Amino acid sequence: MEGAEEVRLEVRDGVAVLTLDRPAVRNAVDLPTARRIAEAIDELERREDAAVGVIAGAGGTFSAGMDLKALAATGERPTDTARGPFGLCGRPPEKPLIAAVEGAAYGGGFEIALACDCIVAAEDARFALPEVKRGLIAAAGGVLRLPRRLPRNVAAELAMTGEPLAAPRARELGLVNLIAPPGEALPQALELAGRIAANAPLAVRTSKRIVEESATWTEEEMFERQQPLVDLIRDSEDATEGTRAFVEKRAPRWSGR
Question: Where are the domains of the chain?
Answer without folding.
Answer: 4-197, 201-248
